[in-house]
Design a protein that fits this description.
- The protein is mainly β and 133 residues long.
- It is built from one helix and seven strands; from the N terminus they run αβββββββ.
- Helix content is 5%, strand content 29%.
């Protein structure tokens, strides 16, 4: 399933390295890092959580459609962690794609917009993948 997800999203397998810049003028960088606040990564050695966002406007599929936004939050802390989500372009919503928590519980149904669009709680020692559509 992870391989299929990666193949489905061209932004996750670009030919050239990400620049972490908005070189196409789409108002988002191709790759950005976040912590508990959007746009402010915590790279300190004591941090146990981080998130990254891939802007799908930098990748196209075979039909020349741009890809979705992909947000991946990593929580290696032993307690749940709240992440404030970056705001998506008008008309787009964050949707749950993957949650690796131990119980396998998806607190939000896959493919449906999250009820709260500006933050998400990531369970302890898990990864959450969101899609912005």
């Amino acid at each position: 399933e992870a391989i299929a997800f990666r193949k489905e999203h061209p932004i996750l397998h670009m030919e050239k390295p990400m620049r972490m810049a908005d070189y196409k003028g789409v108002r988002y960088p191709d790759l950005s890092y976040h912590d508990h606040r959007p746009w402010y990564p915590g790279f300190e050695k004591y941090c146990r959580s981080i998130a990254c966002m891939y802007c799908g406007k930098f990748a196209v599929d075979e039909q020349k459609n741009t890809d979705d936004f992909i947000y991946i939050a990593y929580n290696s802390y032993w307690k749940p962690c709240d992440f404030a989500l970056p705001k998506l372009p008008e008309g787009m919503n964050w949707q749950m794609a993957i949650c690796t928590d131990e119980a396998g519980a998806h607190t939000y149904p896959a493919g449906e917009p999250l009820p709260i669009q500006n933050k998400i709680e990531v369970p302890a020692r898990s990864v959450v993948v969101l899609i912005g559509k």
